[in-house]
Amino acid sequence: MTQDLYKILGVGRKASDVEIKKAYRKLARKYHPDLNPEDKNAEKRFKEIQEAHAVLSNSKKKKQ
Fold first, then answer.
1. How far, in Å, CA of 54 to CA of 7, rounded?
2. Is-contact 30 17, C-beta < 8 A?
3. Where is the J domain (predicted)?
4. Domains by residue range for the chain, with CATH
5. b vs e for 39-58, b when ≥16 Cβ sit within 10 Å of the residue's Cβ?
6. 24 C-beta neighbours (distance < 10 Å), count
7. Residue 33 in contact with residue 43, Cβ under 8 Å?
8. How much is the pTM?
9. Is there a contact between 48 and 5 (Cβ–Cβ < 8 Å)?
10. pLDDT, tens digit, for every residue of 24-64?
């Protein structure tokens, strides 16, 4: 099952690059493992957020 990268970042499919970056930064701060050492799911969630941002911020990867 593939995850919806837009849903992971909480943005719509027509989100601009600026909106994607803003959502990424907000979520990255919220789920960063260093800021949530007690939360076992924070690292997993942070990695999902990073992967979603890596794809959606790259126009070539985004089209695939």
1. 14
2. no
3. 4-64
4. 5-63 (1.10.287.110)
5. eeebeebbebbeebbeebee
6. 21
7. yes
8. 0.85
9. no
10. 999 999 999 999 999 989 999 999 999 999 999 987 776 66
